[in-house]
Amino acid sequence: MKRIEGGVTAPKGFLAAGLNAGIKNSDKKDMAMIYSQVPCRGAGVFTTNVVKAAPVKWDKLAVDTSDYVQAVVVNSGIANACTGEEGYGCCVAMASEAGRQLDLPTQAVLVASTGVIGKQLPMDKITAGIGLLAQALGEDREHSRLAAEAIMTTDTRSKEVAVETEIGGRTVTVGGMCKGSGMIHPNMATMLCFVTTDAAISHEMLQKALSGDVEDTFNMISVDGDTSTNDSVLLMANGMAENPEITAPGPGYENFCAALHEVMVELSKKIAGDGEGCTCLFEVTVTGARTKSDARILSKSVICSSLTKAAVFGHDANWGRILCALGYSGVDFDPGQVDIWFESSAGRLKIVENGVDTGYSEEKATEILSQEEVRAVCDMKQGEESATAWGCDLTYDYVRINGDYRS
Predict the structure, then answer these.
(1) Chain mean pLDDT for the chain
(2) Which residues are annotated as site, described as Cleavage (predicted)?
C-alpha cells in the first residue's frame, strides 16, 4: 500500500466538482458533487444523535434499500437539521434534481448538508447549483480539490487523502475527503466524510469494513464533545479496478480494510488537528489496558478533558489532569502503576512513573508541548490492549468562533 496524491477522484471512474451557489452569501464555495461513471455499492455510518438532519434520514434509507448509488450532492452553510417535513422535502428535491441532471433514479443520489441548524435551504440557489455542478464535473486533481473546499464551514483547510493497494493482482485505489472543525464528537454509529473506491466488493462486506473501521478512527476523535446532527461517513465502491469481487473475509478483504483504514485515520487526524481555534493536534495513546474497550474509553476520556486540552494549549505539562481524566473514565485500574510520557518532534519525556512525578525538566516538557503535533502515552500496566484517540488543544479562539457562529 502506498499514499498517493489525490482525493475522491483518485479511484477510477469518479468525478467531482465544487463551486459557489450563493448559499453563504459570500464568495466561498458552498456546493459539491461526487459522481461515478458506473453504479456503486454504497455503505454509510451515521450520527447516533436522536436529533438527525434530513440528509441523514435520506442517506440511511438509500444505503439500506437502494439497488445502487451513483452520486452525492452536498451543500455547506445550512445543515437542513430541525427543519421538519419541509426540510426533508428539500432533501428529496436535491436528490431528485441531481438525478434528473445526471440521468439517475432519485434513490441513487445521496445528499449531505452542513452548517447552521434550523434554517431552511434556499432551493432556488440549490437547484441552480446542482445544474452547474453537473456541468462542471471532472476527474482531475483540481476537481477533487474544489469539491473538498466546497464542503468546508469553519474549517481552515480542506482535507483529502488517497492510497493505492493491490488486490487479486489489480491496483485498487481508495480516496476520501472530509470536513469538520467544530461540533465534533462522533459516536458513529457538522462532521462529513466521503470515501470513494474502485474496488469490486459486495454491499455486505463494504458495510462491514466501514462499520468496523469507524470504531478506531472517527469514533476516536473529539474537538468539543458535541455530537452533530449531521455526522455521516459515506463510502461508494464502483468496481472499476476489476479485482476479483470481495464477498467474504480473506486476503483481498484484509488488503481493502487496511487501505480504508489508512484513509480513515488520516482524515480523522485532519479533522482533529483543525479543531476550531486550535494550535495543535493532540494525540493520546493508551497501552497496557485489559481490553480494547477499556483502552478506547481511557484514551478518549483524556482527549475530551477540557482541563487537559487547556494545559496543552498553555504548553503546561500538568499531568495530574491526565491521570484525573483516566480516573473518571469508568475503567478500573491502579493509579500507582500508571506511567505517562509526552512526545513530539522535539523529543520524548517520561513525566510519570508508577503514578508519581519523575522529576522531569519543565523546560523540556514545555518544548515538547510547543509543537504542532503533541502526543501523550499512558501505560496502564494491566494487559496487552491499546487504542489511540485524537483531539486538539482548547484555545481562546474556540469561544470566539462559537460565540458569533451565526452572526
Answers:
(1) 93
(2) 189-190
Q: Please name the residue ranges forming H helices in 277-370.
A: 292-303, 306-313, 319-327, 362-369
Whether residue 238 is annotated as binding a ligand: the answer is: no
Mean pLDDT of 112-140: 96
pLDDT of residue 375: 97
Per-residue pLDDT at 283 exceeds 90: yes
Has 402 been labeled as part of a binding site? yes
Phi then psi for 289, rounded to 5 degrees? Answer: -85, 160
Confidence check: pLDDT of 189 > 60: no
Q: Cell numbers of 276, please?
A: 476550531
> Which residues, 6+ apart, have CB-to-CB distance to 122 below 8 Å?
22, 23, 78
The band of 230, judged by pLDDT with boundaries at 50, 70 and 90, is confident
User: Which residues are within 8 A (CB) of 381 and not within 5 positions of it... i.e. 6 or more apart?
Assistant: 288, 334, 337, 338, 339
Q: What is the pLDDT of residue 225?
A: 59
What Cα–Cα distance (Å) separates residue 161 from each residue in 33, 369, 376, 407? 17, 27, 25, 32
For residues 147 and 176, what is the distance between their CA atoms, to the nearest angstrom? 11
User: Is 48 a known ligand-binding residue?
Assistant: no
Summarised one tens digit per residue, pLDDT across range 142-163 is: 999 999 999 998 788 899 999 9
In the numeric block, the cell 523540556 is attached to 364
Residue 32 and residue 16 in contact, taking contact as beta carbons nearer than 8 Å: yes
* Structural domains of the chain in order of their starting residue, each with its CATH number: 2-272 (3.60.70.12), 281-403 (3.10.20.340)
* 179 labeled part of a ligand binding site: yes
Instruction: Pull the grid cell for residue 339.
Output: 506511567
Which residue out of 9, 47, 190, 388 is catalytically annotated?
190
Q: Is 80 exceeded by the pLDDT of residue 72? A: yes
Enter the C-alpha cell of residue 32: 459539491
What is the rounded distance in angstroms from the CA atom of residue 335 to the CA atom of residue 337? 5
Given CA atoms 20, 232, 194, 280 in this order, what sign does their dihedral have? Answer: positive
| Known catalytic membership, residue 190 | yes
59-205-285-299 Cα dihedral, nearest 10 degrees: 50
